[in-house]
């Protein structure tokens, strides 16, 4: 195990009390209890950040099956991925894919952020934005952390496939767009949900075309969704979509989901994430065969066979 891994425990397993949860209730009577384990939580000591970070991992239920020992899984990396952030509900979408067969099983990796305004942004060029957000500017270093420490750790300890996706919402969505523009080969797929494209007077939306020009054909894909976020964010999204439409043919495939009429910043994430996974990792429609007779109206049922 790498020397920058300083601790690990099974979530809600090895710990006497689950992190960020109230003490477990001890019921009376004959009921028996077993802690619920949804994954594994690691603490990485990062040399890049000079700090430790929680890295949470969920794997499909068949990951450890003996007849599945050689199977490799694509990996979904989730920003704001601590236990008290977005890891658990996105891990639930990983389970949904495995249960429903509507999209492929994935390994889900949550990456903890601590100071989102500092770690997920670049230093603004606009003076007023710079004065409003003096802590900003750590996005490149956080990208380095993911590239040089998180991904190698996951690849060394799990059966990972060739496909990697990066997902985030709000400032984390902005970080997804930043990574897509400036380090496009780090991930194959990008999921930016209500990204804060108002940032720095819509800098990425205005100037990102320079980062897309001349790109060669690739299998890069980006999913974008937006809630009712106000005019600056919507204007930034519209400009960014224009950049994608003008991208060199074959350089990127994108899908845009406008949810501004039905969703707010507080409600968009989970449903849009599900939509993204169904688009990016769609599984073939299962062939269930003919419908059972009891699913059909009586007039449409086949004749009953004699016993």
UniProtKB/TrEMBL annotation:
The UniProt entry, under SUPFAM superfamilies, shows: alpha/beta-Hydrolases (SSF53474)
Q: Which InterPro entries match?
A: AB_hydrolase_fold, Esterase-like, Mycobacterial_A85_antigen
The record's annotation in Pfam families points to: Esterase
User: Known PANTHER family for this protein?
Assistant: ENTEROCHELIN ESTERASE-RELATED (PTHR48098), FERRI-BACILLIBACTIN ESTERASE BESA (PTHR48098:SF6)
Q: What is this protein called?
A: Esterase
Q: Which species is the source of this protein?
A: Candidatus Viadribacter manganicus
